[in-house]
Design a protein that fits this description.
The structure holds two protein chains of two kinds. Chain A is an all-alpha fold. Chain A is 95% helix and 0% strand. In chain B, 77% of the residues lie in helices and 0% in strands. Chain B has one domain. The chains are: A mainly alpha, B mainly alpha. Chains A and B meet through helix 1 of A and helix 2, helix 3 and helix 7 of B.
């Protein structure tokens, strides 16, 4: 049972980290775009 | 100047809502309804995230190939954006496969890792597609899209090798077919639908960054 739980928890952590990175990168890209258009 | 269209944001919200709801349903089904396999026990439930993630990887890298070909044919930046975004999301799915695989292997083969054809070819594919991103960030901006598209096209050679490895080489421990009850098959189908929808949502989200970067590039002239 522990292996199945670890597999799902690891997958969950990986996806959360990736989606957070996407959010931060989008924010950076948006800021850069505002700087460029200013 | 390009900006993210309203319909793109609305579609993204709908995709995230649907995919997260379906992922939640699939996990609930796995925990409460999936039958416990006699030989492997509860550890067999890794199957419901391992296989859909592998399928999503195949779809993601396949789209990278198709979009790379489309970019080389048309030189339209949008195809390059699709190729790199799909490749990146595919890498996350491939990493899930490589994390869940050893946990399953430990239960069924009593080893975390073995250099059998499917595992080895999948690891090589993961390394090479990781190389796609390293090369993309290493080359000059002027040739980045062309180099990426050529790589995205060439890397497809790993695709049939990984898919067919269980048939082409002897001594593969990886099962060619999995015997499933109807309950298992039903929950696997729900899990597949959930993770493929999740892939589409993540791809759509990743494409937003490329749209914003293209807008900056246009502003830079």
């Amino acid at each position: 049972m522990i292996y199945a739980a670890v597999a799902y928890i690891l997958a969950g952590i990986l996806w959360i980290l990736y989606l957070l990175s996407l959010r931060n990168r989008e924010r950076s890209a948006r800021e850069q775009r505002h700087l460029d258009s200013a | 100047m390009k900006t993210i269209p309203k319909w793109w944001t609305v579609t993204g919200t709908a995709l995230w809502t649907a995919s997260l709801a379906l992922v939640a349903v699939s996990v609930w089904l796995v925990v409460t309804r999936a039958p416990i396999e006699q030989q492997m026990g509860v550890a067999q439930k890794i199957f419901y995230i391992h296989v859909p993630s592998a399928i999503a990887t195949v779809i993601a890298f396949g789209l990278t190939f198709a979009a790379s070909i489309a970019y080389l044919s048309t030189r339209n930046w949008a195809w390059d954006a699709v190729a790199v975004s799909s490749c990146e999301v595919g890498m996350v799915f491939a990493t899930v496969v490589l994390l869940s695989g050893p946990l399953w292997a430990r239960s069924s083969w009593n080893t975390w890792w073995t250099w059998e054809p499917r595992l080895t070819s999948f690891l090589v594919m993961w390394i090479l597609y990781g190389g796609y991103h390293i090369v993309r960030h290493s080359v000059a901006a002027g040739s980045r899209r062309e180099v990426s598209a050529v790589l995205g096209t060439v890397l497809i050679v790993t695709y049939p090798i990984t898919l067919m490895s269980v048939h082409w080489w002897r001594g593969s421990l990886h099962p060619k077919n999995v015997m499933m009850t109807s309950d298992m098959r039903g929950i696997l189908l729900v899990s597949m639908a959930a993770w493929i929808l999740f892939y589409l949502a993540a791809l759509q989200q990743r494409l937003r960054i490329e749209i914003l970067r293209e807008a900056s590039n246009e502003a830079d002239g």
